[in-house]
Write a structure and sequence with these properties.
The structure holds three protein chains of three kinds. By secondary structure, chain A is mainly α. Chain A has eleven helices and no strands. Chain B has 13 helices and no strands. In chain B, helix 4 packs antiparallel against helix 10, helix 5 runs antiparallel to helix 7 and helix 12 runs antiparallel to helix 13. Chain B is flat. The N and C termini of chain B lie far apart (70 Å). Chain C is α/β, with parallel strands linked by helices. Classes of the chains: A mainly alpha, B mainly alpha, C alpha/beta. The interface between A and B is large, with 91 and 82 residues.
Chain lengths: 283, 323, 281
């Protein structure tokens, strides 16, 4: 083998290492850039008003997005009420009673539902709630978000339950516990870290969703009492303000974006930290 | 001799399996029924979703039939609806996103899985996976106020190099298919990286060792042996990224220009299926208009189902290699 | 507390008597002094764990040298230092010298070392390519020769590995279609394709049935005149069958190294005798 060939191969090795490293740098750099930019543009103009005041008419300063923050919270509450029971219990079924063709179909359908674009789910909530009721509502928006939560809740619950060692289950049953009791008192507690973080990550994901809310919960420039009225939500406000022609609204969109992103990323980081810590706990 | 008690007590007839009531009391049956109901409701919800999409698009489907998919006109005033401009926009922006995203994403995945030291690899992967958690509307926000101005400055350079192709001709106002494609590429890169990295790391060590033992350099071992071994999973990650790109709504609608026309140039504004539904749904007057939009939703639904199914087959196929 | 490693017996420099009967017609050099590889005071660490202790050994050209010993004794680790494969493990450290034809392998280019010192692994690991492409891989990266040269070289390697007749009609089928024994011979052919001077075999038959094992042992006989061979084996009978020299490893040390007959019939060290007579291990 000639030494010039070897030199060429080593050069290729070094070049490709650099190129792939640059790709990685680009990807990581984007995140850092996004965070930094939002912090600079949104964080510094964040005021107490943002969290406490209602939106003001165009031109008036001092407005905020208090109603959007509360609205998002209410939407997430409805979403949890819809998504968690079905997702959690369905996940238990697949992990503990599964194995048949029925389970296979359920799993497949869960994956299918997971792949449905969020705007199509919005259409679904529209046809099921908004159309019959003839008005937008928190309920409709919450339903859309809840349906989005179901597949992830099922999958993550099943995954974390399955990760609980068979020896734990057998230990409980050998002591006389029924299957249901074993699941309730031993298996689920053993998997609780994973299931909790799964719910957190799930919520963080749907908290940022905008598309399914556009024609379900719609929007509202005032407070939205109860569950039957249209409501403002943080991501929708960002959208509306960003595409509007008013500079003041752009500024508020940045602030809202900063708040939303900080919340979402904080939940993600905390969840992952909990997960990785529990992985290192001895069995 | 009459049967009498002996030291060995007669066990009697076999006891029946626990009766239904006993099982019910112990909670097993209840637990089964409740969880079964939950699992079944997943099927119910999905079925209902498909049903509602189908029923509520009937006005448009019966009026336009299959030609809906290829009609270029979208004119609510005249009551003429066609899906082609949106299918075109969706496909073009997704294709552009893949064109940019695949080399960057697979390249980074190779670096993180094969070439980087583990500590750096884990740390950077964590950051990149956080990118996947950034909401779409935030990407849209940055798209409008950061990306488009950047593209405006870069546009003359692109035009100078590639302006001879019909892809880069015509006026550029910022909002365009090109901008949407670029934003989408940034959004799908974390998915490609995260899945491809896992798949590449899962390639058995003995494959790498065999190549190295023959005198291959690290890059040669990675590119000639490890990556081909993982190619199904990498392809799967690309399909998953594509499925996401097709359904992306907010970031796209904020930078695509929202113009339901079919133009060859990437610099021209366009429209995507998700974007038009987002923009026009609340303003849709009349049943035909709404049902046309819902029919578009049905088309998008079908498209993503197919792509997701292909992705799943590919990713699942990486488990278990005979050898 | 360790007795010093025994020097090889004085008969080492005399021609080898026919302890291992070679295949009929086998050529054998008359004098046995040409040194191919030598290790001097080799120490190896995984992190803070010392896996090899002051190993010194000579490997002679055209001969088969076997490393035996119980699991975890370091024989595979030592084998892998000979072609610098240990460097793929993070936090590993090598001290000491290894000479290939008198040159320090750590001063040479690593891919060159690995081309000259080939390796076959315990579990066969063919690439997910065709049989032809598997064998051709080493040739391609070392300077893509033209198609005709490539075809010839692939055929030559497959013949040397005694696999040609079985695969000549399906060269472009996947390597995974071969049986376990055939895949291992394919891996041997792949390693031979780049014309290595030394071939390192790391328990090559441990995953194979007796018939496949016998085929590979025949192969070793045929190859050794053109290629120095070092083989790690946990099967003492195999060592007795194929090897000219044998080294006995225990807990990271080379306890005894001598001609195979001596190791197995009249070992100098107690530990060696205990191992080869089956008292432990």
């Amino acid at each position: 083998m000639t030494s010039s060939l070897l030199l060429r191969r080593k050069a290729v090795n070094a070049v490709m290492l650099t190129i792939t490293g640059l790709c990685t740098l680009f990807a990581t750099g984007t995140l850092v850039f996004i965070l930094g930019y939002l912090f600079i543009h949104g964080g510094k103009s964040l005021s107490w008003n943002f969290f406490t005041k209602l939106p003001t008419p165009v031109g008036e300063s001092g407005g905020g997005m208090a109603n959007a923050i509360l609205g998002s919270a209410k939407l997430l509450a409805v979403a949890m009420a819809v998504g968690i029971p079905i997702g959690f219990l369905g996940g238990i079924y697949l992990a503990e009673f599964g194995g048949s063709t029925f389970s296979f179909i359920v799993r497949y359908t869960t994956d299918l539902l997971n792949g449905v674009p969020s705007i199509v789910i919005g259409i679904f909530a529209y046809t099921v709630i908004v159309l019959p009721q003839k008005h937008f509502s928190t309920l409709a928006g919450g339903l859309a978000l809840g349906v989005m939560m179901i597949p992830i809740a099922v999958r993550s619950t099943e995954e974390f339950l399955r990760a609980v060692p068979v020896s734990l289950r057998e230990g409980a049953v050998a002591l006389g516990a029924s299957k249901a009791k074993a699941i309730l008192t031993v298996v689920i507690p053993a998997a609780k870290n994973g299931i909790m973080t799964g719910i957190m990550l799930n919520l963080a994901r749907v908290a940022g969703e905008t598309a399914p809310l556009l024609f379900t919960s719609f929007s509202n420039r005032y407070w939205s009492p109860g569950w039957e009225q249209p409501t403002a939500a943080l991501p929708v406000m960002i959208f509306t303000y960003a595409i509007a022609p008013y500079e003041d609204w752009h500024q508020q969109a940045w602030s809202a974006g900063f708040v939303l992103l900080t919340l979402v990323l904080a939940v993600n980081v905390i969840a992952r930290m909990i997960l990785s810590k529990s992985k290192h706990v001895a069995r | 001799m009459a049967a009498s008690s002996t030291t060995i007590t007669n066990a009697g007839p076999a006891r029946p399996a626990r009766s239904f009531v006993q099982r019910l009391r112990s909670g097993d049956e209840v637990a089964y029924l409740i969880t079964f109901a939950a699992a079944a409701s997943v099927l119910l919800v999905t079925g209902l979703l498909v049903y509602e999409l189908y029923i509520n698009s009937s006005a448009s489907r019966t009026k336009f039939g299959l030609s809906f998919l290829v009609t270029k006109t979208w004119d609510p005033v005249a009551g003429q609806y066609g899906a082609w401009p949106f299918i075109y926009g969706t496909v073009v922006t997704s294709a552009l996103a893949l064109f940019i995203g695949i080399p960057l994403g697979v390249g980074a995945a190779i670096f993180l899985a094969e070439l980087a030291p583990p500590a750096i690899s884990d740390g950077l992967t964590f950051l990149i996976e956080l990118l996947a958690a950034v909401p779409s509307v935030i990407y849209g926000l940055l798209g409008i106020f950061v990306l488009i101005p950047i593209l405006r400055t870069v546009e003359p350079a692109i035009r100078a190099v590639l302006g001879w192709t019909p892809l880069f001709q015509g006026p550029f106002y910022g909002v365009s298919l090109f901008s949407a494609g670029v934003v989408l590429s940034v959004m799908i890169i974390p998915f490609i990286i995260s899945i491809s990295r896992e798949v590449i790391r899962a390639v058995p060590a003995d494959q790498r060792e065999a190549a190295l033992a023959l005198g291959a350099t690290r890059w040669e071992s990675t590119w000639h042996v490890v990556v081909p071994y993982a190619r199904k999973g990498i392809a799967g990650s690309i399909f998953l990224a594509l499925a996401r790109a097709l359904g992306e709504t907010m970031a796209v609608t904020m930078v695509i220009g929202n113009d339901p026309k079919v133009k060859a140039s990437l610099f021209a504004p366009g429209y995507s299926i998700a974007a038009v539904i987002a923009n026009e749904f609340t303003e849709a007057t009349g049943q035909l208009y709404t049902s046309a939009l819902i029919e578009l939703g049905l088309v998008l639904f079908a498209l993503t189902i197919v792509i997701n199914a292909m992705a799943r087959i590919l990713v699942a196929g990486t488990g278990g290699r005979n050898g | 507390m360790q007795a010093p490693i025994r020097q090889p017996s004085p008969e080492m420099n005399m021609p080898l008597p026919d302890i291992n009967v070679p295949a009929a017609g086998e050529q054998r050099p008359a004098v046995d002094t040409e040194l191919k590889l030598s290790a001097t005071d080799l120490n190896f660490f995984y992190g803070s764990f010392q896996a090899l202790n002051n190993i010194s050994m000579k490997i002679y050209s055209g001969r088969v040298t076997a490393f035996i010993g119980p699991s975890g004794c370091g024989k595979s680790t030592f084998l892998r230092t000979l072609n610098r494969m240990n460097e793929t493990v993070r936090h590993s450290r090598v001290q000491g010298t290894i000479l290939l034809d008198g040159e320090d392998i750590h001063q040479l280019e690593v891919s060159e070392v690995r081309r000259r010192v080939g390796m076959v692994f315990q579990k066969s690991n063919p690439f997910p390519k065709s049989i032809f492409e598997n064998v051709a891989y080493g040739l391609r990266i070392n300077g893509s020769p033209n198609r005709a040269t490539l075809r010839e070289a692939v055929e030559h390697s497959l013949r040397r590995a005694a696999l040609w007749d079985e695969v000549k009609d399906k060269l472009h089928q996947s390597a995974y279609g071969l049986s376990g024994g055939q895949q291992q011979r394919l891996c041997i052919a792949r390693a031979l394709a780049v014309n290595p001077e030394v071939l390192l075999l790391d328990e090559p038959c441990s995953a194979l049935d007796p018939i496949a094992t016998a085929k590979i042992e025949d192969l070793i006989f045929q190859l050794k005149s053109s290629c120095t061979i070092a083989i790690v084996t946990h099967n003492m009978q195999q060592a007795a069958r194929v090897a000219d020299y044998t080294g006995f490893f225990l807990l990271g040390r080379l306890i005894e190294f001598d001609r195979t007959a001596i190791i197995f019939k009249t070992p100098a060290r107690r530990e060696t005798e205990d191992y080869v007579t089956g008292r432990f291990g």
